[in-house]
């Protein structure tokens, strides 16, 4: 059991795989376990989950820096971005980064748009001819961070900016509220169960998006039977029916993360990542994700009990709230 940032994590080994699956703090586990037990005793009703949905939505809005009325609820990043892709004129030109996560790019390609990949550090200066820029704030493959200030300065007034914050929200404080889309899945750095995702939409884009996936939840309890179509007036009209247990967990993890000192969280995670970088003679960085390309790194880390992933030919390490100096030192000992 580990104690960090005012809570506890039931983690004994060296878990550095948050970029794949986040480890929830114990209050999240307890909330979901309680909900599962109530379900198993037939003590569950659908309306009782509305509070969790509203709480998680408001916390996501706080983390992004937007009003809750601009946040739509979904289950996956790709599903939410499919709505955006479907709203664009045919053959729109979409600019993205090399090796971008395919949940960001595939919805646009599948919708018939032209998707152009460029180097991450060149992306801001290449936005002039793009209708849309779609990029992760922090790259899944290696932790590279897009230059948000440069992107905001370079992007034209008619170009839509779509940001996937799945690998950044929860540890990286950043001004994201200016973008047309900020989307994130909740089961990584946001430490919620899989099945919860959110998307913040600018007013100018929300006017263009057709809620083609709308079901009863997009209209609420007064819209569960019969016509005519009646949807919420704000971004909730794009909502999918929630995965209840995921929302129960998110309603605990997201407000807690939003209550923390964001700079302290960033310094903790990046500090541990840089402890590893220094020990491996790598340049210091600003990301909580470290890509280790040393020969045999993944096998040596696994033998030392370090849990991580292999992405892009490198061992990918992600440092979050539950990690410690000892975790970083175990990595260095394994790779020495």
Automatic annotation (TrEMBL):
<dbReference type="InterPro" id="IPR015421">
    <property type="entry name" value="PyrdxlP-dep_Trfase_major"/>
</dbReference>
<protein>
    <submittedName>
        <fullName>Selenocysteine lyase/cysteine desulfurase</fullName>
    </submittedName>
</protein>
<dbReference type="InterPro" id="IPR015422">
    <property type="entry name" value="PyrdxlP-dep_Trfase_small"/>
</dbReference>
<dbReference type="Pfam" id="PF00266">
    <property type="entry name" value="Aminotran_5"/>
</dbReference>
<dbReference type="GO" id="GO:0016829">
    <property type="term" value="F:lyase activity"/>
</dbReference>
<keyword id="KW-0456">Lyase</keyword>
<dbReference type="InterPro" id="IPR000192">
    <property type="entry name" value="Aminotrans_V_dom"/>
</dbReference>
<dbReference type="InterPro" id="IPR015424">
    <property type="entry name" value="PyrdxlP-dep_Trfase"/>
</dbReference>
<feature type="domain" description="Aminotransferase class V">
    <location>
        <begin position="42"/>
        <end position="281"/>
    </location>
</feature>
